[in-house]
Amino acid sequence: MCTFPGRRREESMGLRFFCYLSLVLLVWRPFEVGAHDDPMIKIMEDFSGYPIHEPSSSMSLSVDSQSLQKQIDELATFSDTPAPSVTRILYSENDVLARRYIKNLMRNSGLTVREDAVGNIFGRWDGSQPDLAPVGTGSHIDAIPYSGKYDGVVGVLGAIEAINVLRRAGFKPKRSLEVIMFTSEEPTRFGISCLGSRLLAGIDVLEKALKRTADGHNISFYDAARSAGYAHNQEDLTSVFLKKGSYSAFLELHIEQGPILEEEGVSIGIVTAIAAPASIKVDFEGNGGHAGAVLMPARNDAGLAAAELALAVEKHVLESGSIDTVGTVGILELHPGAINSIPSKAHIEIDTRDIDEKRRNQVIERIHNSALTIAKKHLDIMITQDANRQHIQHGTRANARKKQFLD
Ligand SMILES: [Zn+2]
């Protein structure tokens, strides 16, 4: 579940991104690349600012879209819920089977497969200069409950097929190419998103936290990982950390999660920024009472405080000045939650995101202040900011990952 605004932008991009785009297009274009007046080539040239040197006409770049679709459908059958939904939770039986399926596909494509201690899977195609840092591409295959079959999967299976395409065309890369399947992009089981990639990026706070981490059934992270065949050395996951410079570039192909490109009829876009999330949890505590007995001037209604804050979230987000600022009140719980009882407690969780960290933090600050102002109306208040915030201050999760790989 990656988050990006999905909007086309006109900023000029570096050569590296042009290379990314080329690889993406290999995946998405089930026909031969050739004609000079190809509009896609023109877009790529305009976007990158570099001329495109097309492959020689003898090189046929043709995606086997039928078998790719078949693989996507087969992978979707490893699910805890019936089709068309997909539920694949980290280290579950279906996750292990799906991992086996991916590793087999990688081997069938001639890739050398290795796994690290948390189950990040790497399929490598050695280039003619294998000492050069490889180009990595990939995504995740874990799936939140009742999700679809494309999220993440396209980035893994698409990458394998891209390599198949290049092989069929007789291409031999200079740098090695690596398909990466990241472990646990979704936080479903242990409440930690991008678990595998963050460990790859060397986040030692996470490595330590995992020693104390358990799921909702009190199964520890280590026990769960071991049941799936990983984490044999309980005391040390630092072996997962990558050295800086391990990759020369990284590309992730991902479905659009919003409706913008689809509505505009655009088949592909390039992510130029990632909306970093931050969340705030607020607990209001007021006075309960019987809905029929306590008159309005005497009330101290925690539910109304939460409602006021929800509206304040919308106001502050809309006033940010950017369409890229979003805010969501996804959780609002009232206690005791009876129709004839004045809420004595209200719990509200707010998610805010923006591609601009400073702007997003201003919105958080205003929400925070609104919560305090509302609480001055005789309510007690407790505010906690999500742990995500810590990562955000160092850049978005994905950017942090990318940065570490590329430095
Ligand atoms: Zn995803």
UniProtKB/TrEMBL annotation:
Residues 1-35 form the signal peptide. Keywords: Hydrolase, Manganese, Metal-binding, Purine metabolism, Signal. Its cofactor is Mn(2+). GO terms for biological process: allantoin catabolic process; purine nucleobase catabolic process; ureide catabolic process. GO terms for molecular function: hydrolase activity, acting on carbon-nitrogen (but not peptide) bonds, in linear amidines; manganese ion binding; ureidoglycolate hydrolase activity. It comes from the Eukaryota. InterPro entries: Amidase_Cbmase, Bact_exopeptidase_dim_dom, Peptidase_M20. Gene3D superfamilies: 3.30.70.360, Zn peptidases. GO terms for cellular component: endoplasmic reticulum. Homodimer. This is Ureidoglycolate hydrolase.
